[in-house]
Design a protein that fits this description.
It is built from 11 helices and 8 strands. By secondary structure, the chain is mainly alpha-helical. The strands form 4 sheets. It has a two-stranded antiparallel ribbon. It has a two-stranded antiparallel ribbon with strand order 3-6. Strands 4-5 form a two-stranded antiparallel ribbon.
Length: about 350
């Protein structure tokens, strides 16, 4: 019989390896962060001191485009829209819908020019979503904008750059439903775009491994991808082992604890005497019992730790009695008496 372990005596789960990871970013999130940084990194040419930035690099490679799509935080977008959905001006909410449409359009144009089966598969799905619903929804939003906003430079430029799949020249066929305001209809279209992006995200995550292994990478994108994948090795083997190494340092170096030796498994074996046997059955100590095979396919064997005489006695129930000694209860604590039984 063992004394058991009280809850406060158990190993704290917060010290277990994997509870806290100093670097929790994955490959897709790191690509997205690098792309945001790229717009601030200028480079100079041989003839001009300032040629541009590195943003175009992340639109020229299939893997980098798919990774950025997979890293989008849809929950944050949803919360940001709902926070002002009932109070913000309608035109401001409409711009959020247009932004989602322009994202999808940019992904399509970035991948449509790539001679790659992964890119063609993704573009085919985008085209299908646009033809089914998104194209009509985007035309409806543009049609509802007032003249001042629609002719604003950034809005007009975004509409003029849309790919041909949106077919902006077609008339708006979707009539407003009776009894529903423009704000409610706009909300419906926002979540239609959000749902489409969620679908494209799932497809991007599915296609990303094949894209990484395709070998269709230019020199510059290949260097970026190689660096970020190498960083994953440092992340997994060094940074995110901080918790485990901290525990080893504390218990090993500070407290001087050593690693406990191996302990054999123990099982309870119930034996029943055959009623046809006339005499008592004696099982000597060290008798080996077969227990099938383990996960590795090797046979499992257990040896009896003490001699046993098998009789007609049987186990009716197994119960555990735990005696607790509370250090806050006196005078029992002074005599080592139990203060609670469970």
């Amino acid at each position: 019989m063992t004394a058991g372990t009280a809850q406060h005596e158990r190993f704290p789960p917060r010290l277990a390896p994997g509870w806290f990871a100093p670097d929790e970013l994955d490959f897709t999130q790191r690509v997205a962060m690098t792309a945001l940084l790229a717009r601030h990194l200028r480079f100079a040419g041989l003839d001009r001191p300032d040629v541009g930035d590195w943003r175009d690099l992340f639109s020229s490679d299939v893997t980098l485009v798919l990774a950025r799509i997979a890293a989008i935080d849809l929950r944050a977008l949803q919360h940001a829209f709902l926070r002002t959905a009932d109070t913000a001006e309608w035109q401001a909410l409409a711009l959020q819908v247009l932004q989602l449409g322009q994202w999808i359009d940019l992904w399509f144009k970035s991948l449509d020019q790539q001679d790659d089966p992964v890119a063609r598969s993704f573009c085919a799905r985008v085209r299908q979503l646009v033809e089914q619903q998104l194209g009509e929804d985007l035309r409806w939003v543009y049609a509802q904008l007032d003249g001042t906003l629609r002719t604003r430079a950034d809005v007009a430029r975004g509409e003029g750059r849309l790919a041909e799949i949106w077919d902006q020249g077609r008339p708006v066929l979707g009539a407003d439903r009776v009894g529903r305001g423009k704000r409610e209809l706009l909300r419906e279209r926002y979540f239609a775009f959000l749902s489409a992006i969620e679908t494209l995200q799932a497809l991007a995550r599915t296609l990303l491994p094949a894209s990484l292994q395709s070998g269709h990478h230019g020199p510059a994108p290949a260097l970026v991808i190689a660096f970020l994948k190498l960083w994953e090795t440092v992340q997994q083997q060094a940074l995110n082992q901080f918790t485990a190494r901290h525990v080893d340092f504390y218990y090993g170096d500070c407290l001087g604890f050593g690693v406990a030796g191996p302990k054999p498994d123990e099982v309870h074996l119930a034996c029943a005497r055959d009623a046809r046997a006339g005499a008592l059955l004696s099982v000597p100590q060290g008798t080996v019992f077969e227990a099938g095979k383990g996960a590795d396919g090797q046979p499992l064997r257990f040896a009896s730790s003490a001699p046993l005489v098998v009789t007609d006695a049987a186990v009716a129930a197994l119960c555990t009695l735990r005696l607790e000694r509370d250090a806050l209860i006196s005078p029992e604590r002074s005599f080592g008496h139990a203060t609670r039984a469970k």
